[in-house]
From TrEMBL:
Family annotation (NCBIfam families): xanthine_xdhC
Residue ranges annotated for the XdhC Rossmann domain, each copy included: 110-258
Pfam families: XdhC_C, XdhC_CoxI
Gene: xdhC
Organism name: Pistricoccus aurantiacus
Residue ranges annotated for the XdhC- CoxI domain, each copy included: 16-79
Signal peptide: none
Taxonomic placement: Bacteria, Pseudomonadati, Pseudomonadota, Gammaproteobacteria, Oceanospirillales
Protein name: Xanthine dehydrogenase accessory protein XdhC
Listed PANTHER family: ALDEHYDE OXIDOREDUCTASE MOLYBDENUM COFACTOR ASSEMBLY PROTEIN, XANTHINE DEHYDROGENASE SUBUNIT A-RELATED
Amino acid sequence: MNVVANSWHAQLHRLQQAGLPHALATQVTGAGSTPREPGARMVITATETFDTLGGGHFEWQVIEAARQRLGDNQAGISLETFALGGRSGQCCGGFVNVLIEVFSGAATRLAVFGAGNVGRELVRLASPLNWRIQWFDERDELFPGWEREQPRLSRHDLADPEAAVASLNPGSHALVMTHDHGLDRALVDALLRRGDCASIGLIGSQSKWASFRSRLRATGHGEQALAQVRCPIGAAPDGRKPSDKTPYAIALVSLAELVHLVADGADNQAGNDTYRGLAPQRLRAVFPPTHS
């Protein structure tokens, strides 16, 4: 086994780069006889652990606490105290405080349908963002190749649009920009029937959307559902379209529009609570003042 590759810091870097959910557990204090010293760390995912805080029932409790928070999508930090002889069922006789930092991973998921000129520019611009991107096209030769090196980016076949849409995670943002109007319409139809997309954008003109809208309405989609679709994408707040029609310019304004949508969604989920970190009384209990 490659010890360096499986160390907590190597795995933390990998998981952060990939935008995958994980937790970092750090022993911050210790008193009496303890399995490890302060500063010991381990990384925990839903199915794996890397490095150790000393093993035994105490470590099992740390893992369980971290996985419960991961399962509940409770991003943030918590401070846990373990008495090694009471709560932890060990005979060391000391106690440790463990800081558990939970990272829920890349919360934003983007599905891009189409690897044409605009699709390639848009994915290239979006790839540095902390988003998980799924990129679909049935023409394998159009994928540029550099996407294979991007840890949060995956490419997928689009031979079956229904299956492609079904593979998305709930709450994904979707951009439809294929080479075929019939395929675009089938994708928008399937995305609307899912009913759980964070946003749906369609490349094209107002006349294209008017035609799509009429056909989608005829298949049973109501006005409330149809209002979810943005077309054309990348329009200014007053409805003006960019005068520069190059693929790069269209991709740029479309991504800027999407960044605002993602930020608005994050703000709505976060609420108005601006408090961050551990409660002061918990910190004082763990780290009493050394002088008055």
